[in-house]
Design brief:
By secondary structure, the protein is α/β, with parallel strands linked by helices. It has 2 domains: about 130 residues, Rossmann fold; about 140 residues, Sandwich (Tumour Suppressor Smad4), CATH 2.60.200.30. About 20% of the residues lie in helices and about 35% in strands. It is built from 6 helices and 18 strands. Strands 3-2-1-4-5-6 form a 6-stranded parallel sheet, with helices on both faces. Strands 8-7-18-15-10-11 form a 6-stranded antiparallel sheet, with helices on one face. Helix 1 packs parallel to helix 4. The longest helix has 15 residues. It is elongated.
């Protein structure tokens, strides 16, 4: 699996059609759409938009259903925050259509092109001066009394917790058939390296470079100091068993879709490779994103002479 820190710059094929996917509630959305439309008009690139943007874009841009949009475009630009990127990745599914994120939100770990750099990004995109960073997803199958009852997939993370109920879960975590023990806690997060800077980071898990072939497992507020976050190889068989307090628990994918769980459910997690193709530019860098988003280095303190 390749990433912006390990993939050398290369010129891609020509872009003929760009699809727009976005959050219509973002106040900067009209400005972003206009920038894209103006630049594409000059270069003869057609701009199409998702049905989610109907009514909030210029009349000159054709609006299509999501399936029709994906079938016609060479690349999709997601305008919004990380939530918009996650929704766009789910809509793209297994199509392989590249996805570029433009940050109209706050943090924007996935949408690493800020509005002030949008013009330059679109110019490079149309000129083919970009590379593809392929990201894996994490999948889960839910088993109840030997029958698979549900599946879920996520680019960032899959979370098991009690949802709005303030109760701890009684869980057992297994790796390759070996039990790590039974413990109480608010839940568990299984994330991809891409999702390491999301809920995993807030729960005390490590930041992981996106090119590392692994999954991250982070217990949420465990009632045992011995249960710590883990980084495991992608081929590891991760299973979670819900015991007595599992009734009412939920499995949530990327914070957007949920499945209801029950006592005795067994959840099997695995990594799926080569699912989402992100557009990156020569200046893109994992560490640049971390430096800006996490304020690494911060403001330098100046110390005066003691009087």
């Amino acid at each position: 699996m390749s990433g912006p820190d390990q993939t050398s710059f290369s010129t891609q094929g020509p872009i003929k059609r760009i699809g727009l996917f976005g959050n219509p509630l973002k106040t900067d959305l009209p400005d972003a759409v206009q920038i894209i439309a103006d630049l594409c008009d000059k270069t003869g690139v057609e701009v199409l938009a998702s049905e989610d943007l109907a009514g909030g874009i210029p009349a000159s841009i054709q609006v299509l259903s999501n399936p029709d949009l994906i079938e016609k475009v060479d690349v999709v630009i997601a305008l919004g925050g990380d939530g918009t990127m996650l929704r766009a990745s789910r809509v793209l599914g297994l199509s392989g259509v590249p996805l570029l994120g433009v940050n109209l939100g706050s943090l924007g770990y996935l949408t690493d092109v800020p509005l002030e750099e949008l013009s330059s990004a679109v110019e490079q995109l149309v000129a083919g001066k970009y590379h593809i960073d392929t990201r894996s997803r994490v999948y889960c199958s839910v088993w109840r009394q030997g029958t698979k009852i549900a599946t879920a997939g996520a680019l960032n993370d899959l979370v098991v917790n009690m949802g709005p109920l303030p109760r701890a879960l009684d869980m057992e975590l297994q790796m390759d058939g070996d039990s790590l023990g039974r413990f109480l806690g608010d839940g568990i997060i299984v994330s991809t390296p891409t999702g390491s800077t999301a809920y995993n980071l807030s729960a005390g898990g490590p930041i992981c470079q996106s090119t590392v072939d692994c999954l991250l497992v982070a217990p949420i507020c465990p009632h045992s100091l011995g249960m710590r976050p883990l980084i495991v190889a992608s081929g590891t068989k991760i299973e979670l068993i819900l015991h007595e307090t599992g009734e009412g628990a939920v499995l949530t994918a990327d914070g957007q879709r949920t499945n209801t769980l029950a006592n005795g459910d067994r959840l099997a997690f695995r990594e799926a490779h080569r699912e989402v193709n992100l557009v990156k530019f020569p200046e893109s860098s994992f560490y640049r994103v971390m430096r800006h988003k996490l304020n690494w280095g911060g403001t330098r303190r100046r110390f005066g002479k003691e009087s």
